[in-house]
Amino acid sequence: MREKILKILKNYKIDKIKIGTLGSHSALNILRGAKDEGFDTVCICKKEDKKIYENFGVADKVIEVEDFKMLLDRDVQEYLRKENVILIPHGSFNAYIGKFDELLVPIFGNRELMEWEIDREKQRIWLERARVRMPKRFSRPEEIDRVCIVKFMGARGGRGYFLAKDAKDFYDKAKKFVEMGLARLEDLSSAEIQEYVVGATVYFSFFYSPINERIELISIDRRYEVVDALGKVPAEIQLGSEIYPTYTVIGNFPLVLRESLLRQAFEFAERIVEVSKEIAYPGMVGPFCVESVFNNNAEMIVFEISARIVAGTNVGIPFSPYSYILFGEFMYMGRRIAREIKVALEKGMLEDLIY
Ligand code: AMP
Ligand code: AMP
């Protein structure tokens, strides 16, 4: 597959490269970053969102689609190749496209690693090989012996996640969630049941630069989820009523970490990058996010990773404390991606960033 993509890239006019993405998730971040680095941009978006992308003025060309899956249509792909577009994948690519075999347009990043991310089993193998501390996992509801968080496959962005303290609680809640339309019955058997780690959640957005062979911390955030509303409802009312807020993400907050905790994050990030090279050549390229909880002992426990830009990096525009310390200029994930492409073009290293 990579050979095929590199062959397509060979036909690209190097001085006419454009940067494109799907209009959602972190598109404004990506497109603005591309503009800051001097690239023309293409945004493939839904009809109803067109106004947003035109309003912000960061898309030189807007392609309207009925559905994001239409990115796979032959004429859309042909147009993107003709326009020398490099696509920047984000969460909507995972959520609405998932398999990338039919996408014959060069992508910045490693599409094989994105598939390692989507498959929870593979993701766990990756993290275990990287010797990253993780929450205990239970293979069946009957094994639950402590508070667990239940995650349905494909229920991305926290939608439909719930907490359960034993098997009965699991089945009761699962039934409720199916009734409320937050989960599907057929998802039950493949649900991931993880020990719920009580602690402070921290999302680290790193960038691995194959050109500099360096891991860079671009920003840190935490999420704003519907479940956060629970704090506004007194406990005695919660107990007496049927309130089931879920982990549906609504936004993100920027975060600065206690400095002595950075070491753990960098150690994990280094090993995650090392193992990525063993499992999916050429390994990590560009943005990745390590999603973690710090417990009472300030130990970092990783519950998920993303092998692409996450929407949490939107808090880092135009810079975060970390990107400023590292670059001394406005730098944020969308711009960092475009910068890597720009430098690669100057050094003749573009192939190293594309899959
Ligand atoms: P959307 O296009 O907004 O539906 O987002 C695509 C995917 O990314 C969905 O699975 C979302 O749940 C997820 N997502 C979008 N924004 C965020 C965010 N701020 N934090 C975490 N996940 C997000
Ligand atoms: P995810 O979609 O896996 O990134 O998780 C969504 C939300 O679920 C996070 O913001 C966390 O608050 C929570 N979460 C996920 N896994 C765990 C865990 N093992 N322990 C505690 N909280 C978790």
Topology of helices and strands:
Blueprint: H1 2-10, E1 18-22, H2 27-36, E2 40-46, H3 50-56, E3 61-65, H4 74-82, E4 85-87, H5 91-96, H6 111-118, H7 120-129, E5 137-138, E6 148-151, E7 162-164, H8 167-179, E8 192-195, E9 200-209, E10 214-225, H9 235-240, E11 249-254, H10 262-279, E12 286-294, E13 300-306, H11 321-327, H12 333-347
Helix pairs in contact: 2-12
Bound molecules: adenosine monophosphate (2 copies).
Would you write up a description of this structure?
Among the domains are: 2-108, 3-Layer(aba) Sandwich (Rossmann fold), CATH 3.40.50.20; 137-195, ATP-grasp fold, A domain (Dna Ligase, domain 1). Helix 2 (27-36) crosses helix 12. The N and C termini lie close together (8 Å). Helices cover 33% and strands 22% of the residues. The chain contains twelve helices and 13 strands. The protein is α+β, with helices and mostly antiparallel strands and 355 residues long. The protein has helices spanning 2-10, 27-36, 50-56, 74-82, 91-96, 111-118, 120-129, 167-179, 235-240, 262-279, 321-327, 333-347; strands spanning 18-22, 40-46, 61-65, 85-87, 137-138, 148-151, 162-164, 192-195, 200-209, 214-225, 249-254, 286-294, 300-306. It has a five-stranded antiparallel β-sheet. The protein is globular and about 65 Å long. Bound molecules: adenosine monophosphate (2 copies). One adenosine monophosphate (AMP) binds at residues 135, 149, 151, 158, 161, 194, 196-197, 201, 223, 225, 247, 291, 293, 303-304.
Question: In what order do the strands lie side by side in the largest sheet?
Answer: 11-10-9-12-13
- The outline comes out as globular
The tally of helices reads 12
How would you characterize the largest beta sheet? Answer: 5 strands, antiparallel
Percent strand equals 15-25%
Computed Rg: 21 Å
- Proportion in helices: 25-40%
Structural class determined from secondary elements: alpha+beta
Q: Can you identify the CATH class of the domain at 2-108?
A: Alpha Beta
